[in-house]
Amino acid sequence: MILEALGSALIGLALAWATARRLPHRLPARALVLSTGVGGALVGAFITHMALGPGHPPAILLGALAVSAALLSLLLRPTRRLHRRQAPA
After folding, report:
1. How far is Cα 20 from Cα 34, in angstroms, rounded to an integer?
2. What is the pLDDT of residues 14-62, one digit of tens each?
3. Per the UniProt record, which residue ranges are transmembrane (predicted)?
């Protein structure tokens, strides 16, 4: 269980770091992004562990990755390049 938690935290940190490095203009502060990635991975690992039970480390790490990615996607802001057309009144 401890190794699953540590592995999940490392996966979340790596995903958050890659996201913050790739899309810095669309994300809030780096500290928030990194903590969201780690926290999401830990929550995802916990939920997957409770659903599947012990003995499924690859599935638990995959669940951690999925929840971390989902939470990080909620932090993304839209780009400023979108030009919406006004509907005729």
Report:
1. 8
2. 999 999 999 999 999 999 999 999 999 999 999 999 999 999 999 999 9
3. 31-52, 58-76
Residue where the block lists tokens 């995959």:
62
Burial class (CB in 10 A: 0-12, 13-18, 19+), 57: middle
State the burial class of residue 38 (Cβ atoms within 10 Å of its Cβ: 0-12, 13-18, 19+).
buried
What are the φ and ψ backbone dihedral angles of 60, each rounded to 5 degrees? -65, -40
CB atoms within 10 A of CB 35: 14
Task: Annotate 26-83 with DSSP letters as a single string.
Answer: GSS-HHHHHHHHHHHHHHHHHHHHHHH-SS-HHHHHHHHHHHHHHHHHHHPPPPTT--
Tell me the per-residue pLDDT of 4-13, one tens digit each, with 9 for 90 and over.
Answer: 999 999 999 9
